[in-house]
């Protein structure tokens, strides 16, 4: 079953799940409560995609792991360490089956999407606000000024919303731009709104779990969402 996919500065195209077969698996992520799953892959054409699944009502998914071998001893076509090859993708209504060198994973989810992960930006850029021209059809939501570690849930990013317009919602995808210019795709697991101490200024807290655990310093990073 193909899905509608938007690529920067290009008209919408249809991409099939089978187009991701034979890709190198870079990341496999499953929330402990099974509310979110995603897999990042690098295709033979050098493009990076995220295959993501969740239930639209936020309830846990049914997940079955027939076998699992998570070892980063494979090299991709670009000589990047990977978890092996995604050999096949099965899709039937709300059921998704993934098989590859990593093992096999099946899950039932009402929302299954594909999105392209944006490319890496040069490290010599120090002000992430300068990268707006690299994020077409997106707007800056906030700059992270605090990163809170929640026991058993992972990281929550906190910042002040900028400008007017729609805010971020639960299960919405976003792009984090570090101060060094690296781009990372993630999903809002939970969103909270609260006022600063003795102030009417509204803050946004975005729970990301362990999705960005390997990024490093997150404070002063910018969060961008679709405009």
What is the CA-CA span between the terminal residues? 27 Å
Category by helix and strand content: mainly beta
Low-confidence stretches: 1-14, 120-133
> Got a strand count?
19
Q: In terms of topology, how is this protein built?
A:
Elements: E1 3-5, E2 13-15, E3 23-30, E4 37-42, E5 48-54, E6 62-68, E7 74-75, E8 81-82, E9 85-92, E10 95-100, E11 103-108, E12 111-116, E13 138-150, E14 154-161, E15 173-177, E16 183-187, E17 190-195, E18 202-209, E19 222-226
Antiparallel strand pairs: 1-2, 3-4, 3-9, 4-5, 5-12, 6-11, 7-8, 9-10, 10-11, 13-14, 13-19, 14-18, 15-16, 15-19, 17-18
What does it look like?
The protein is an all-beta fold. Residues 1-14 and 120-133 have low confidence and may be disordered. The protein has strands spanning 3-5, 13-15, 23-30, 37-42, 48-54, 62-68, 74-75, 81-82, 85-92, 95-100, 103-108, 111-116, 138-150, 154-161, 173-177, 183-187, 190-195, 202-209, 222-226. The protein is globular, with a radius of gyration of 18 Å. An 8-stranded antiparallel β-sheet has the order 6-11-10-9-3-4-5-12, with no helix packed on it. It has no helices and 19 strands. Strand 10 (95-100) and strand 11 (103-108) form a beta hairpin. The two termini are 27 Å apart.
Brief account:
With 227 residues, this protein is an all-beta fold. It is 0% helix and 50% strand. The protein has an 8-stranded antiparallel sheet, with no helix packed on it.
Characteristic key phrases:
single chain, 227 residues, mainly beta, eight-stranded antiparallel beta sheet, seven-stranded antiparallel beta sheet, 19 strands, 0% helix, 50% strand, disordered N terminus
């Amino acid at each position: 079953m193909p899905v509608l996919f938007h690529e920067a500065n290009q008209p919408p195209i249809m991409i099939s799940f089978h187009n991701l077969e034979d890709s190198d698996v870079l990341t496999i992520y499953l929330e402990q409560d099974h509310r979110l799953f995603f897999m990042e892959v690098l295709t033979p054409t050098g493009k990076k995609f995220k295959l993501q699944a969740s239930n639209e009502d936020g309830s846990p998914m049914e997940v079955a792991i027939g076998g699992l071998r998570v070892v980063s001893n494979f090299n991709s076509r670009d000589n990047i360490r990977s978890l092996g090859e995604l050999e096949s993708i099965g899709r039937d209504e709300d059921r998704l089956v993934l098989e590859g060198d990593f093992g096999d994973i099946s899950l039932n989810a009402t929302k299954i999407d594909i999105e392209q992960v944006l490319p890496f930006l040069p490290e010599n850029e120090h002000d992430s606000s300068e990268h707006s021209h690299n994020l077409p059809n997106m707007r800056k939501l906030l700059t992270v000024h605090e990163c809170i570690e929640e026991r058993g849930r992972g990281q929550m990013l906190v910042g002040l919303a900028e400008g007017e317009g729609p805010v971020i919602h639960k299960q919405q995808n976003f792009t984090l731009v570090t101060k060094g210019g690296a781009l990372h795709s993630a999903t809002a697991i939970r969103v909270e709104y609260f006022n600063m101490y003795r102030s009417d200024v509204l803050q946004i807290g975005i729970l990301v779990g362990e999705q960005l655990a390997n990024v490093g310093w997150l404070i002063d990073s910018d969060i961008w969402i679709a405009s």
